[in-house]
Design goal:
It comes from Molossus molossus (Pallas' mastiff bat). This is Fibrous sheath interacting protein 2. The chain has about 200 residues and is mainly alpha-helical. The chain has one domain (about 1-155). Helices cover about 50% and strands about 10% of the residues. It has helices at about 1-20, 45-50, 105-110, 110-120, 135-200; strands at about 30, 35, 65-70, 130. The protein has a two-stranded antiparallel sheet with strand order 1-2. Strands 3-4 form a two-stranded antiparallel ribbon.
Length: about 200
């Protein structure tokens, strides 16, 4: 997750600043007598995963924003929290093979002349991140957002189970203490009754 946030910070901030400062000249729109101001929030890497699921990053006219997903020879797919059947037909993230994301080709891509050629041809950035189109980037962001939501749901579920377990354990502990007090009181009562019987 941190990798995604760190890798998306540059294109997201560039996209946000260009959106905010570009041809949005009509900052004020007249609607009858009421004046409405168009608000375009700054979009950073941390906010990318907090956008609603259906929201996609827009195409910004006149911009040359570079979108990228992961480092060279790093898998696109992340392990999910558990057995996840929310996307059985792989609609969130296409399952096409891309050799640039194959971890088994890491040594091949680490050769200097191969890296130089990939950078020259526009397949990777200067810091060895795999370049993708906006459509692929939006799909990848949506996939990671779903993954994040899945982790959050399971985390909340785990916390609920832990609180239930703690409540149950404290109740059991209180019951054990109460039983110990009752047993101790019975023992004292038996000793006192035995002393009275011995005295008579």
């Amino acid at each position: 997750m941190e990798l995604y946030l760190s890798s998306c910070s540059k294109p997201a901030s560039v996209a946000a600043t260009k959106t905010a400062t570009s041809s949005v000249v009509e900052d004020m729109k007249q609607c009858g007598e009421v004046v409405h101001k168009t608000h375009i929030p700054g979009l950073g890497a941390a906010e990318l995963l907090d956008l609603p699921l259906g929201v996609k990053l827009p195409v910004i006219p006149g911009s040359n924003t570079v979108y990228y997903t992961t480092k060279l020879s790093e898998k696109l797919f992340r392990p999910s929290y558990g057995f996840n059947l929310t996307d059985p037909y792989c609609r969130l993230l296409e399952n096409e093979y891309n050799s640039l994301h194959d971890p088994h080709l890491k040594e091949y891509y680490s050769r200097k002349y191969i890296l130089k050629k990939l950078k020259k041809d526009g397949y990777i950035t200067n810091d060895n991140k795999v370049i993708c189109h906006l459509r692929e980037f939006n799909m990848y962001r949506q996939y990671l957002t779903n993954l994040k939501l899945d982790y959050e749901r399971n985390y909340v579920r785990e916390q609920e189970w832990k609180t239930k377990e703690m409540l149950l354990l404290t109740k059991i502990g209180e019951d054990v203490k109460r039983e110990a007090r009752i047993e101790k009181q019975r023992h004292r009562n038996r000793e006192e009754s035995d002393k009275k019987v011995d005295l008579t």
